[in-house]
Protein backbone atom coordinates (compact mmCIF):
# COMPACT_ATOMS: atom_id res chain seq x y z
CA UNK A 1 0.00 0.00 0.00
CA UNK A 2 1.28 3.32 -0.91
CA UNK A 3 1.11 6.24 1.40
CA UNK A 4 0.14 9.66 0.11
CA UNK A 5 2.01 12.49 1.61
CA UNK A 6 0.09 15.44 2.91
CA UNK A 7 0.88 18.74 1.25
CA UNK A 8 3.22 21.04 3.10
CA UNK A 9 1.51 23.50 5.43
CA UNK A 10 0.54 26.83 3.88
CA UNK A 11 2.76 29.43 5.44
CA UNK A 12 2.07 32.50 3.33
CA UNK A 13 -0.67 34.72 4.74
CA UNK A 14 -2.97 36.57 2.40
CA UNK A 15 -5.30 39.32 3.46
CA UNK A 16 -8.52 39.93 1.62
CA UNK A 17 -10.18 43.29 2.09
CA UNK A 18 -13.91 43.40 1.72
CA UNK A 19 -15.21 46.22 -0.44
CA UNK A 20 -18.00 48.15 1.17
CA UNK A 21 -20.71 49.35 -1.20
CA UNK A 22 -21.45 52.96 -0.34
CA UNK A 23 -23.68 53.87 -3.27
CA UNK A 24 -26.30 51.94 -5.10
CA UNK A 25 -26.84 52.18 -8.84
CA UNK A 26 -29.09 55.11 -9.63
CA UNK A 27 -31.66 55.16 -12.37
CA UNK A 28 -32.56 58.60 -13.65
CA UNK A 29 -35.76 58.97 -15.58
CA UNK A 30 -36.01 62.13 -17.61
CA UNK A 31 -39.14 63.27 -19.31
CA UNK A 32 -38.77 65.53 -22.26
CA UNK A 33 -41.67 67.60 -23.41
CA UNK A 34 -42.05 68.87 -26.90
CA UNK A 35 -40.77 72.40 -27.32
CA UNK A 36 -43.76 74.71 -27.55
CA UNK A 37 -43.55 78.42 -28.18
CA UNK A 38 -46.09 81.19 -28.20
CA UNK A 39 -48.25 81.23 -31.34
CA UNK A 40 -47.01 84.77 -32.00
CA UNK A 41 -43.92 85.96 -30.14
CA UNK A 42 -44.21 89.47 -28.73
CA UNK A 43 -40.86 90.41 -30.31
CA UNK A 44 -42.16 89.70 -33.81
CA UNK A 45 -45.18 92.01 -33.64
CA UNK A 46 -45.31 95.44 -35.25
CA UNK A 47 -47.46 98.46 -34.53
CA UNK A 48 -49.40 97.71 -37.69
CA UNK A 49 -50.70 94.50 -36.16
CA UNK A 50 -54.36 94.80 -35.18
CA UNK A 51 -54.04 93.27 -31.72
CA UNK A 52 -50.91 95.26 -30.91
CA UNK A 53 -52.47 98.52 -32.07
CA UNK A 54 -55.71 97.99 -30.12
CA UNK A 55 -53.74 96.91 -27.02
CA UNK A 56 -51.71 100.14 -27.28
CA UNK A 57 -54.71 102.44 -27.59
CA UNK A 58 -56.97 100.60 -25.16
CA UNK A 59 -54.90 98.38 -22.84
CA UNK A 60 -57.82 98.14 -20.38
CA UNK A 61 -59.92 96.29 -22.97
CA UNK A 62 -56.99 94.06 -23.92
CA UNK A 63 -56.40 93.12 -20.26
CA UNK A 64 -60.08 92.31 -19.88
CA UNK A 65 -60.20 90.26 -23.09
CA UNK A 66 -57.13 88.21 -22.15
CA UNK A 67 -58.56 87.49 -18.72
CA UNK A 68 -62.00 86.61 -20.08
CA UNK A 69 -60.62 84.31 -22.78
CA UNK A 70 -58.42 82.61 -20.14
CA UNK A 71 -61.45 81.79 -18.01
CA UNK A 72 -61.48 84.81 -15.71
CA UNK A 73 -63.63 87.91 -15.59
CA UNK A 74 -63.48 90.92 -17.87
CA UNK A 75 -64.25 93.80 -15.49
CA UNK A 76 -61.63 93.30 -12.78
CA UNK A 77 -58.48 93.34 -14.94
CA UNK A 78 -59.94 96.10 -17.12
CA UNK A 79 -60.62 98.36 -14.11
CA UNK A 80 -57.31 97.44 -12.50
CA UNK A 81 -55.43 98.55 -15.62
CA UNK A 82 -57.50 101.70 -15.94
CA UNK A 83 -57.13 102.82 -12.29
CA UNK A 84 -53.74 101.40 -11.33
CA UNK A 85 -51.70 101.04 -14.50
CA UNK A 86 -48.33 100.49 -12.84
CA UNK A 87 -49.65 97.80 -10.48
CA UNK A 88 -51.39 96.09 -13.39
CA UNK A 89 -47.96 95.36 -14.87
CA UNK A 90 -47.22 92.94 -12.03
CA UNK A 91 -50.57 91.22 -12.50
CA UNK A 92 -49.91 90.90 -16.22
CA UNK A 93 -46.57 89.21 -15.51
CA UNK A 94 -48.37 86.70 -13.26
CA UNK A 95 -51.19 86.15 -15.75
CA UNK A 96 -48.71 85.54 -18.57
CA UNK A 97 -46.84 83.04 -16.38
CA UNK A 98 -50.08 81.19 -15.57
CA UNK A 99 -50.92 81.08 -19.28
CA UNK A 100 -47.41 79.85 -20.09
CA UNK A 101 -47.73 77.00 -17.59
CA UNK A 102 -51.30 76.04 -18.52
CA UNK A 103 -50.45 75.97 -22.24
CA UNK A 104 -47.15 74.15 -21.49
CA UNK A 105 -45.13 76.78 -23.31
CA UNK A 106 -41.42 76.19 -22.83
CA UNK A 107 -40.27 79.73 -23.65
CA UNK A 108 -38.71 81.51 -20.68
CA UNK A 109 -40.89 83.94 -18.72
CA UNK A 110 -40.68 87.68 -19.26
CA UNK A 111 -39.83 90.19 -16.57
CA UNK A 112 -41.57 93.29 -15.29
CA UNK A 113 -39.42 95.64 -17.38
CA UNK A 114 -40.38 93.85 -20.58
CA UNK A 115 -44.06 94.01 -19.70
CA UNK A 116 -43.79 97.67 -18.68
CA UNK A 117 -42.09 98.81 -21.89
CA UNK A 118 -43.76 96.37 -24.31
CA UNK A 119 -47.16 95.94 -22.68
CA UNK A 120 -49.15 96.18 -25.89
CA UNK A 121 -46.99 93.55 -27.63
CA UNK A 122 -47.24 91.23 -24.61
CA UNK A 123 -51.02 91.64 -24.56
CA UNK A 124 -51.24 91.07 -28.32
CA UNK A 125 -49.19 87.88 -28.00
CA UNK A 126 -51.48 86.67 -25.24
CA UNK A 127 -54.57 87.53 -27.30
CA UNK A 128 -53.22 85.43 -30.16
CA UNK A 129 -52.55 82.57 -27.74
CA UNK A 130 -56.11 82.46 -26.39
CA UNK A 131 -57.47 82.63 -29.92
CA UNK A 132 -59.06 86.07 -29.84
TrEMBL record:
<keyword id="KW-0472">Membrane</keyword>
<feature type="transmembrane region" description="Helical">
    <location>
        <begin position="74"/>
        <end position="93"/>
    </location>
</feature>
<protein>
    <submittedName>
        <fullName>Oidioi.mRNA.OKI2018_I69.XSR.g16845.t1.cds</fullName>
    </submittedName>
</protein>
<keyword id="KW-0812">Transmembrane</keyword>
<keyword id="KW-1133">Transmembrane helix</keyword>
Amino acid sequence: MMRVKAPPPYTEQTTVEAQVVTTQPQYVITTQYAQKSWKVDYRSLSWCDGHCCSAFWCPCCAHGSVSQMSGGGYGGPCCLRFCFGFIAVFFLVEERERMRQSQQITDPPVGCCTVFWCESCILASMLYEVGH
